[in-house]
């Protein structure tokens, strides 16, 4: 039997079935609106999961128009994933029952390691089942998977409260389910797409390293964003992350920089910093770009949907508002980007082609009399001077610029191999224009600082 | 005559008439939609300026339903402010003509110092007229005034593109007109009010120091936000700013940290830093809190509409999402705030009053099963432990929290003298809730980082 188990374990080392399931069982399914399992069933139907869904609960004959099974063994067909939304103890019992019937399970239930000693024991038992049976477990204490490719959604928060992003090229790996749900919700409202979002919770089995191994070969994923509280196996992480960064950009936010529980003990600060330093060193070794916080992670998601890297650090700034242009220049320089001057020949070309009121330098200030054409002229001529990134601060107060700038800029962007980042702070009109830009695949940021953070992220990525 | 001029000059040293005018003349008024003077006339009417508006242009008998005068001297009544929207040379001629007729003028026209030697001469002439006549000049090359108290709006950008904020307690002083317009627009769309917004442009006469002198005694202004590119008279600035900060908070963004034009000459970095260091020292001496950028200035405007300072740096974090709570704790600590542990007695009280699934520490994690009441219990009991600021990270995924939390939190906030900052990142539902919170006077921030920036700003302000 141990031979058989070993074989099974080997075949399931790969977790890709979580991201391409043909059949999903929901254990503890319920028709009661608002219950976790009910929300999950709704979500799976709404996202349009194309495979089979099997509700399992001895209390019901059917749920939400689907036949309900009394036990998983009554289901004749193969099942890839079981979703378990039961209290901790029944969840553990269920895992024992189904370990040989399914390839993997997502345990969304809380009540394990995070609750203390008893919970730790339960979680240890889960790991033992994994070792013996070869089943792969995501969770417990997680939101599971939101996947725009395979159309799986196990996030048990109603869409009315937490929006679901459209399909895009970013995959997000997060220990924290609430963090994953929150950024998903915000990305959805801003029209930023994702590929796969994975909330792996306590990580009893599947962890960030397993996810990185899968995503490195995932053609639907252009870049990976990590939200990490802690890593159990540092060596495994560095190896998996290194393999992934050789193929695509990986960025990470590390939270919990101080030791939990010793915050009042200020004398421990040195030790805390030391622990955080280990993470920083690991990121560096693996080629992972560390990002400072939620805002930065959102910026990364936005920029990586369009660009993956920049060739260097030379930034050209084009603006119609002097003050914002200067602020962008400051932020670039204090972030290590180079706002180099433009050459005499480029300056001459620009001066001859732009109206006389424009200030030709870096930034190029087109002033409030700017037209759509001026923006394109400044970009085309400026980029000839060997810049690695262009930040275009388009303020919408000037009356002569129009929605037509979107298509002109899109065309110009396609003629160049240089990332073009739009920075448009402002109110209603501006936000409407920004949505139009975003819809055409031009990344728009709503503050000088966020545009510069995005530029910095691109320059940190080794060209892959 | 010099005696007479000196007297006149003395009486007009104060610039408060700009912010309480009874009569405004628009020189070069035009009925042509889109022309600067036309937009300004529209803006004055739309905001409901309660005084008299006198269009002046020999070409027209009436404009927009108002009698149009051939020259300013045909107007019999006293005029406080003339708005001049003419090209540079005619603008200068006009100033000469009206210098003894009006208390002050706003020259929105460009074409002065910012355009080179010729423009510098024209601007020097303006200063000479000011010296001789006692007229006060705002501009040139400025947007002028947006004032929700006296209902003046000379910003020549149409409301359809640049929104106007409601009345609030923040006054903004900005050299850059586009910066002022952009942040006004964004504040308007987010429901953040302002008192007076002043774009003084080239500052030929009225400068940031004059504005600070006025705002320090302005009862409609609770706090002042400065956007500075350069200061002409450092001593005057430090004195004016010092007087202002003794009465109310002043925050500043300094842009243009490098010498303009020498960006390519990297060897000059030392000198550039030196110049910026002088500004930093001046801010410090004057008690001005320096803020790093557009995002920070927006955060300051939001928080100062509700709170003016915090007693200390001890921050209590309450959340329903562990990951976001930990990120806030990290951001607090890396910004110099203290996320101190809670006392044993407070911990006991909290544990007895909160459900058992809550993690009682700092952060207090109420988890996804949180109710409205749990938030209030955590806040009330937590604040008894002597915290200076509470940051409440309310994520709206948890199904049991409701809109009713707004009123409950408002009531609780009124019982305490401690700033309560809400942090709610998220999408559509969250943004709707945040608007309701903001409408009740609770400051809501859309990222962990912005909430922490606001907390830091409050702790930098000496209690006034």
Q: What percent of residues of chain A are in strands? A: 15-25%
Strands of the biggest beta sheet of chain A: in what spatial order?
9-8-11-10-12-13-14
Q: What integer value in Å does the Rg of chain A equal?
A: 25 Å
Biggest sheet of chain A: strands, sense, closure? 7 strands, mixed
| CATH structural fold name of the largest domain in chain A | Rossmann fold
Poorly predicted runs of chain A: 1-12, 260-274
Greatest interface by residues involved: A-B, 75 and 74 residues
Overall outline of chain A: elongated
Domain tally of chain A: 3
Secondary structure tally, helices of chain A: 15
CATH architecture of the largest domain in chain A: 3-Layer(aba) Sandwich
Distance between the termini of chain A: 45 Å
Assembly level: homodimer
Going by helix content, strand content and strand pairing, the class of chain A is alpha/beta
CATH superfamily of the largest domain in chain A: Succinyl-CoA synthetase domains
The level of helicity of chain A is 25-40%
The average pLDDT value of chain A, as a whole number, equals 91
